Structure formats: structure tokens, C-alpha cells
Amino acid sequence: MDDNTDGDDAPARTRAAAVSDTATLGPTDRVIPTWTEPLARAGSTPLGGPLGVHAVIGRHWFWTPLRAALLIALIGLTIGWFGKAACVQQHFSPETKKLELDWRSNRPFTAMCYSDIIPLYSAEQLDKGGFPYQTSWYDDEGKPTQHQRWMEYPVLTGLFQWVNAKLTDGWMKIANAGWLPTGLAVTVFFDISAFWLALAWLVTIWAVARTARRRPWDAALIAASPLVMVHAFTNFDTLATACAATALLAWARRRPALAGVLLGIGGAAKLYPLFLLGALLVLCVRAGRMRAFYTAAGAALATWVAVNLPIAVLFPRGWWEFFHRNSLRGADPDSIYNVITQFTGWQGFDGPLAFNESPVWLNLVTLVLFLACCAGIAYIALHAPIRPRVAQLGFLVVAAFLVTNKVWSPQYSLWLVPLAVLAVPRWRLLLGWMTLDALVWAPRMMFYLGDDKKGLPIDWFMSFVVLRDLAVIGLCVLIIYEIYHPTRDLIRMGGEDDPAGGVLDRAPDKFVLRKRVKELVG
Predict the structure, then answer these.
(1) Could you read off the pLDDT of 16-42 as tens digits, one per residue?
(2) Residue 211 forms part of a structural domain
(3) Fewer CB near the terminus (10 Å): N or C of the chain?
(4) pTM for the predicted model, two decimal places
(5) Number of domains in the chain
């Protein structure tokens, strides 16, 4: 591998620039879903059927594939908001003589409307007005399990909550003066948070549509995803998906520094966007484009440090809480380790643990398994006959983390949606996986309701978790198959190499673990 081969010859650069410039793509260059996707063809029946052979494409003054996707997303996000709205209903309590959240009769579980955003408003002391990472409190006060707590989210997610809490305070002051509608502060906090999270998901869709180039209609699959209808407002994960998706777009546009900055911002909100650097590393090694990788990785590291350093210096213990709490967590209900425990009676790698005792062996095993998967993915990237696409490798890395990790919170599946649409844009397959993944929420809520309240036994929940894991693993197997059989890859079947590749798009290989079988793309 020669780091000095970062530049191609001028004709190759010209061809790559032409392919990467969406402005050069005419209407006839688009992939028409009603011609290529049975799902879209069937869905178009109420609207008049598939697009006609002689239809004029790309001439409407307003409706573009992106705007249609954004409209679908607004409908999906509205459904998602109404799905959570039952948990911010209010009632007048005769005991306290004031308005309270109506969580009577286990509403969060019976209505399946639970959202972390609602309890976090008070649990993270946001309603008290303190600054995250500086403010601490005691859980289980007066009990043997009493312990000191700080904000347990990464810096940008914690600050996002704090800013929304301040906006809530401002709203309530204006509302109390009679200028705005009023209600419980936690309801206002949820609605303000939901607004920004919805905007972040729209940004995610915009970035994916731009990155997909010839397949802008694939963004509609993200917009209509059942996962977003269930989990867009379960936590704060759409902030990270927006950063990861825009970073891929910046990389596709040959702006590695901007891509790195966006990955660093995303990593300061949720850790997973930084995993994409691993995919870029092995692909850049294969193509000999290490300069672009160093630029992106350096920008990502500098951005992450710039965001975290002030909090780490001023409030080191509060900043460390996120890492501390993660080290103490045991196997999450949605993890494969808990599935094995529930079905076999296995006591786990560490056995019974005392309060606040870290599961050292579980932490080590999950780390080793994830690194082993990353090594396998790196081998595939360097051994495949044609260099894999960025989205393919990105999906494999993030999926490997979720499958091997001790925590798979339900909303984490949102991380996979943009990557899946770019990696394997097979509509029926992806919609089936996303529907199954979204359905895990129902037995999860019914299990938390408890047997004594006519909830479901844990076996139902665990069975759906296994099906979800198998579906994700199945997607990984399909992606690996298409990496080794690029003629089956829908993107490369259309004549493209890697729409998200940027400097990697149509770049010749410089380092491989075997010689290319044959030149399948120009």
C-alpha cells in the first residue's frame, strides 16, 4: 500500500466527479420503484398503477422524490407522536389537588406509549433547573442502595435535554402570562423535544436521498418505516442518525473533513456514528486513500474532544457518569445474553452480582466478540473480489455491535435504518425486518405490565427478540453474499460503484488479500 497514491489520474477523477454529481443525473437516470419493486408496484394501484412508459419524469414544479419522502415522513412522525401522546395526558388528582400525568392503570404499558423523555425530565433533575454534569442527586435515599447520580447521557444528548428544559421554562412563563397554551411542564418538555427529534429524522431522510443518487425514492422507505412510528420519540437517537447520515453524504461529496466533524458531533450524542470510521479505515486501506481517512478521523477526534473537553475539565465526575453507568449495566432485557439466561437458566458470565458491582466478564466478552466481528468484517473488506460499498460495511459494523452488545435498547434499531436502505435497498425485505423489529415493542410492554396485571409472560418477549436478532443477522448474511457476488447487488446492477464512496468511488485497489477475480465495474 502506498499512501502517496491518494490521487488518481485526471480522467478517472473526472469520471468519478461526474458520477457523484447528482446535478448531472437526468430524470431518466432515476430508478423507478414501481418498475423495479413489487411492493411499490402493488402500493401504486390505488394511485393509478405503475408509472407509464411514456410518463414525463422530473418536470413537476413541486413534487420531487425527496419532497414526497419528507411528506410521508411527516405522516409517520405524526403517527409516532400520537403513539406517545397517551403518556402525556393529564388529570386532576383529588389527593394532591393538582394536575398530574395520567399514568393510572399502568398506562405507559397498556397504551404502549412509554417514552424515556417523559420520566427523564424529573429523573435527571431537569425540572430543578440545574446544569447537567454539575448537578448531582441521590437515588434510593435512606436505603442501603443509596448512591449518588449525575446526568448519564453523552455530552450533546445531555445538553440537548438541558436546552429543551430551559425552553420549557420559558414557555411556561409566557403561558402563565396568558400568551401561550399551558399544561404540565413535562408535557411541554416532551413536545419541544419531539419537535427537534422529528426535524433530525427529516434531516436523516434528506441526507440519505442525496447520498442514494439514482435511487432517491429509497428515502421513502425510511420515511414510512414502522420503526420510526414506534421509536422516533422513545429516546434521543434521531440526533445521532442525522449526524451519521449527513456524515455519509459529506463523505460521498468528497468532503472528508466535514464528514469527520459530523461523525464527531454524532459520537458526542451517541457513540455509534464513530463506528463508521472503522468501515472507512479498511476501505481506504484497500483503495490506498489513507489521506482522506486521516482527515476524517482527525476531524472526528478533534470535534469529539472539543465538545467533551470543557465538560470533562469542569465537571469530571459528572462527565464520567455515562461511562461509569454503562460499565455497571448488566445484560439488557433485549440482549442475546438475557435471552440465553431466560431460556436456559444460565447465571451469566459473572454469576449473581452485588449492588453496584460491575459485570467484568460480561463487559470483556462483549468487547472481545465485537472486536472479533470487526476483524471478520475487515477481512471481508480486504478479501472480497470487488471493494465493498461504504454503506454495506457500515451496516455490518453497527449490526455487529448491536448483536454482541449487552444493551440493545429498542430505539437503537433506528441506527440501522438509513444504513440498511443504502446497503441493501430491497423494499419488501427491509419493510419485513422493520415491521418485525417494531413489533418487539408490544410484547416488551406487555411483559413489563406483569403477569399479575394480565401482561404477557417473558417467553413472548424473548421469542420476538430472537426473531429480531435473526432478521438482522439475515440481512448481514445477504450483504456479505452481495459483497462476494456484486452482480447481485442492486446498486452495482444499475451501473454504479459506490454512491456513498466519495474518494473510494471507482478507485482502483492498492491492497487486497487476493487478486480480483475480474473487473465487474468500470
Answers:
(1) 444 444 444 455 566 666 555 666 655
(2) yes
(3) C
(4) 0.89
(5) 1
